[in-house]
Design a protein that fits this description.
This protein is of the alpha+beta class and about 280 residues long. The protein is built from 8 helices and 15 strands. The protein binds 4'-deoxy-4'-aminopyridoxal-5'-phosphate. 4'-deoxy-4'-aminopyridoxal-5'-phosphate (PMP) binds near residues 188, 210, 213 and 248. 4'-deoxy-4'-aminopyridoxal-5'-phosphate binds next to helix 6 and strand 13.
Length: about 280
């Protein structure tokens, strides 16, 4: 089946799917997006992703030109047209084409784009053995400047940190906030386990409130694993029994080293494994 890309309610072949070079999404990273997963032909937590998309848009004063119900139906339609049982969805709303100046009010209609594609996860070996992290010198955006809760098209903050990670030989990097506390990774949220207690930074630490993060917190409750959302520093990770990351693309993956210090016994821990398995069941329910 050839790939069909959705732009404003119409479908285009990949080579034909185009938007203006004057679009402020390109010129200024002015827009918002979501990254979602398809499991067994169904979109995982589409409604929650749409709520976050709308909140991101509201936060930057961008009016999405389609009603939520319609966009939900359109995303599902795009998934079935592309015929992927397992895959990834990139849903984007740009500010639209404008002039060569910042003024977003000079932009025409926002562009709504939906791309359905295959997903490349981390290699299996990283799920088996866990990944290594390094702390990036680039801190997460100050929440009073641009809230990390906005999933905007400007990912430079995270990309700078990602480059630091990759240069250090790590596929993910830890980002601290302006207070030096643990925030999240460049494209994933972070959890630790200490004495059987699950802990993750609160939204106020300046993070994206991950859909996977919230699903894991719900699973923990169902499984009787105590959890809390509280500020933490790198000390808490260095001295944790287990550490893992969550994200739509990564799902649940163990982190076994930070800054070359081994976390726990250096292997994916039992609670990480339990939550990973529970998550894999949840996405297929
Ligand atoms: N933090 C950041 C900065 C992200 O980009 C992502 C991935 N979108 C996440 C966390 C994880 O969020 P989710 O579980 O909704 O994919």
């Amino acid at each position: 089946m050839t790939q069909q890309i959705y732009i404003n309610g119409e479908y285009y072949a990949k080579d034909e799917a185009k938007i203006s070079v004057y679009d402020h999404g390109l010129l200024y990273g002015d827009g918002v997006f979501e990254g979602m997963r398809i499991y067994g032909g169904k979109v995982f937590r589409l409604e929650q992703h749409l709520i976050r998309l709308w909140e991101s848009a509201l936060s930057i004063g961008l009016k999405i030109p389609i009603a939520p119900d319609q966009l939900s139906a359109d995303v599902n339609d795009c998934v079935s047209r592309n015929g992927l049982e397992e895959g990834y969805i990139r849903l984007i709303v740009t500010r639209g084409a404008g002039a060569l100046g910042l003024d977003p009010y000079k932009c025409s209609e926002p562009q709504v784009i939906c791309i359905v594609d295959k997903i490349t996860l981390y290699p299996d070996s990283l799920y088996q053995n866990g990944l290594e992290l390094v702390t990036a010198a680039t801190i997460r955006n100050h929440p009073a400047a641009l809230s990390p809760r906005v999933k905007s098209l400007n990912y430079l903050n995270n990309i700078m940190a990602k480059m630091e990670g990759l240069k250090a030989g790590c596929v993910e990097a830890l980002m601290l906030n302006h207070k030096g506390e643990v925030a999240e990774c460049t494209g994933d949220n972070l959890f630790i386990v200490k004495n059987g207690h699950l802990r993750t930074p609160p939204v106020e630490a300046g993070i994206l409130e991950g859909i996977t993060r919230n699903a894991v917190l719900e699973l923990a409750e169902k499984l009787g694993i105590q959890s809390s959302e509280s500020a933490m520093t790198r000390h808490d990770i260095y001295t944790a029994d287990e550490c893992f990351l969550t994200g739509s693309a990564a799902e649940v993956i163990a982190a076994v080293k930070l800054d070359d210090r081994q976390i726990g016994d250096g292997k994916p821990g039992p609670i990480t494994k339990q939550l990973n398995e529970a998550f894999r069941v949840l996405v297929r329910e």
